[in-house]
Amino acid sequence: MTESAQNRGCRARKSFEQALKAHRAGHLEEAIRSYTESLALNPDQPQTYNNMGVALRAAGAFHAAVASYHRAITLRNDDPGSHSNLGNALRDLGRLEEAEACHRKALELDSCYLKARYNLGLVLKDQGKFNEGIACLKEVVKRKPDYVDAHWDLALTLLMKGDLEAGFEEYEWRWRLAENPPRQFDKPVWNGGSLDGRTVLLHAEQGMGDSIQFARYVARVAKRSRRVVLECQKPLVNLFATLEGPAEIAARGEVLPEFDLHAPLLSLPRIFNTRLDQIPIAESYLAADPARGIKFAKTLEAKRFNIGLAWAGKPTHRNDRNRTVGIEPFITLLGTPGCTFHSLQIGQRAEDIFAYGCTGLIHDHANIIEDFADTAALVSALDLVISVDTSICHLAGALGKPCWVVLPYTPDWRWLMAREDSPWYPSLRLFRQKSFGDWLGVFARIDAELKAITDV
To answer: What is the C-alpha separation between 204 and 262, in angstroms, rounded?
Structure first.
């Protein structure tokens, strides 16, 4: 007996409601399965296709999400949410011009749709259209002053444009992000006022690369304070002992010494009114302990060009799928005549060396690197480092060692856009994708440059 249309409709609604419940609970696989069941019973549901697209995108299935949104729009072309959601998925795929058009279509349908205006600001930033992106995001926060994500992305856009003063001022909105609550101390925050002989605690935040980058400000604080205590991630403690300025260094999680005021490291550029042409730079501000280099000495070949490689960053980084290349593109470099290669990779991704058959082509030091002071000793002995955007390139820059950084089309704000140098680190050279996902082009340029400098 054929099932009635009414009964199928009821079952479709029930599956949709189950999907919504699972989706809200973060159970993406279950949600996608229930959306699919609902659509099998009734394919004329634009909202279900839209919701399934949201779940697919959250699961990283960007191509499928695009297809799902297209089906939603085919069924209902006047829904601004579906158009903007499609734009988000296209942005994930690097189809930035198409993404921009989708968000503009959403705003054409509803000019008051703040989420679409916010999303448009993001994709304009990704394309390097900074003035338009900033205007877009400023309009969003004007209409909704407490729109935390818009303030945060406005800060990143200003910073990427190179407007560090305005960018770091807006960057203070990071403390309003749900995933980034501020540290709680029983002492007041230092915002740059007179220290009057008091002790300041400077504490690290975010990743270890961030800590290395902004540790340059510690010496400036020390000139204005009686005493500086620096709290950082444990793997950085021994390395940061070479910094100028701190009287004491504590590992995060340890009992802190007495202090009167505190400040997060990434607030120091704002406190010191940093501009692009006034970044505190030096040839180096960290140093390696020569004694730590002894354990690497046997693998360093004096008559060859010694190169360190890092191909993966922290997987929890929000842009890691774009910035982490993996070992495969680096393998093309391993046959370069006159070169000896050294892995600077630790953790799980160091296992790529064995997994990709490279054990005879690159020295694996993961089992003897205990902390960043060890890594610094190895980096200091190398002729060149080639790295993705991770803590290794910050370490090389802070040590003043030559480092080639491979960057995605839309990089992290600190690398700015459309330049090969870094105002933060004079020893770094930036190799950027010329189009989204074009690692082949990046490594073709690196291969040619490497052969040119080693062809002696």
So the answer is: 11
Taking alpha carbons only, the member of 171, 168, 122, 179 closest to residue 316 is 179
Q: Are strands 199-203 and 261-264 parallel, antiparallel or unpaired?
A: parallel
The residue type found at 296 is F
List the 384-388 sheet strands across, edge first. 363-364, 339-343, 305-310, 384-388, 403-407, 428-432
Encode pLDDT of 86-113 as tens digits.
999 999 999 999 999 999 999 999 999 9
Pairwise CA distance, residues 364 & 356, whole Å:
13
Task: Please tell me the predicted confidence (pLDDT) of residue 281.
Answer: 81
DSSP per-residue string spanning 93-104: TT-HHHHHHHHH
Rounded Cα gap, residues 104 and 84, in angstroms: 8
pLDDT at 1 over 50: no
The Cα 222–Cα 377 span in angstroms is 26
Nearest to 55 by CA among 33, 40, 83, 84: 33
- Mean pLDDT of all residues belonging to the chain: 95
**Distance between CA atoms of 94 and 245, rounded to whole angstroms?**
43
Residues ≥6 apart with Cβ < 8 Å to 270:
168, 169, 171, 172
For the stretch 257-289, pLDDT in tens is 999 999 999 999 999 999 999 999 878 999 999
Give the Å distances, CA to CA, from 366 to 306, 345, 431.
17, 7, 26
**pLDDT exceeds cutoff 70 at 456:** no
Written as six digits, the tokens of 280 are 């505190």
Contact predicate 82/50, CB 8 Å:
yes
The β-bridge relationship of strands 403-407 and 363-364 is: unpaired
Residue type at 112 in one-letter notation = C
Domains in the chain, CATH or no CATH each: 5-176 (1.25.40.10), 199-278 (3.40.50), 290-454 (3.40.50.2000)
Residue 398 predicted with pLDDT over 80: yes
pLDDT at position 226, please? Answer: 85
